[in-house]
Amino acid sequence: MLTFLKRTAISLLGLLFLAWMITYVAVRFERHEYTQISDEQRQQASDYLVGKVTPRPDTWQWETFTPEKGIDLRTGTVDAENAKGTVIFVPGFTGTIDMSMETITQLNRAGYRVAAIEYRGQGKSHRPLSNP
After folding, report:
1. Rounded percentage of the chain residues whose pLDDT exceeds 70
2. Considering its fold, how many domains does the chain have in total?
3. Of 130, 107, 127, which is closest to residue 119 (Cα–Cα)?
4. Which residues pair with 73 in a beta bridge?
5. Rounded to an integer, what distance in angstroms lies between the CA atom of residue 61 and that of residue 67?
6. Has residue 34 been placed in a domain?
């Protein structure tokens, strides 16, 4: 029985190492091609969004969390008078705080203090690629 457990453990470790190596190589050599946009196109996109994005609560505060040197993650908080509690809000992968502002506003209006943070590479948080 002990031999079976040892063999199983060694096999699982080997598979885990193999999966890690495949992931490492795939990510290491991955190349991204991004469409370049002009300042005019950027301005047109901003103009288009005016009035279409849910406004932030009046007391919303943008902040930055730095888990390690050179890695700044965008965060934000809004307090509520006599708050019922605090909601930690993390938008899903490819989501941003701005995209979730309607939900954050609803939670705040319901009497909750809300703290939000964006994943690395999302929104205005640090991204490891130079040209997202």
Report:
1. 91
2. 1
3. 127
4. 65
5. 19
6. no
